[in-house]
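G., the chain you wanted modeled:
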Amino acid sequence: MSSVIRPPAVAGTFYPEDTAILTETMRRLLSSARFRGSAGSVPKAIIVPHAGYVYSAPVAASAYARVATGRGHVQRVVLLGPAHTVALGDIAASGADAFSTPLGVLEVDSASRDAVVRDRLVSVSDLAHLAEHSLEVQLPFIQFVLGPVRVLPLLVGTVSTAAVAQLLSRVWGGPETLVVVSTDLSHYHDRETARRMDNRTAAAIIARNPKGVSPADACGVYALRGLLSLAARREMKVEQLDLRTSADTVGDLTRVVGYGSFVLA
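Predicted structure as tokens:
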């Protein structure tokens, strides 16, 4: 039986579609990544933005630089992010066997996917994944930093914090599993308003307070709330690495989007 591979949908728009250029882009982003705090053991989870690379990739790179020492140890990445093209009232996996980018193919952890689908924690919607960028833009980072790991891409719709936390508990695994929550922060405010909102959101994330983050604060709010709830239950430490806006990376001060990167251990 032939494999079903989900092809890249936003290569050439959100990130380079040429393999050599994308590889060099990854190298440059990771080598210039900035973050506060000292590098330690490989985080269990990261929170990263998902806009076009020119806007948010420098912020995301700070978190991926921190997981680079997990290469050869991390074997699976669970990806959660919002669905921008299809309205979802649940959590949707892809039916594909693998996802591809210009850097190659990543196998889907189909055993874990099938188990959570069987237990009705997740549905399957290839339509939701077809043109979605929130997870795809993370894949080149994962490939470049961690190598040919398995992935479990999940799009999180309007669901309860408890539902996401329950799902995460099921797929949490041990040190072989990294959890990635993909979310941007405030959207389309002036720079000062965005900074004020994002600082408040960052404080809620650091405090592991899911009730402190609203849909106006983060487009991936439902996945984020679930991770924060589980992090509080597990008494995890949250560290902020970077917090900027598109005004900082591109320069438009009037209609900006906020980006933050965090690690949880």
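The radius of gyration is 17 Å.

Shout if anything looks off.
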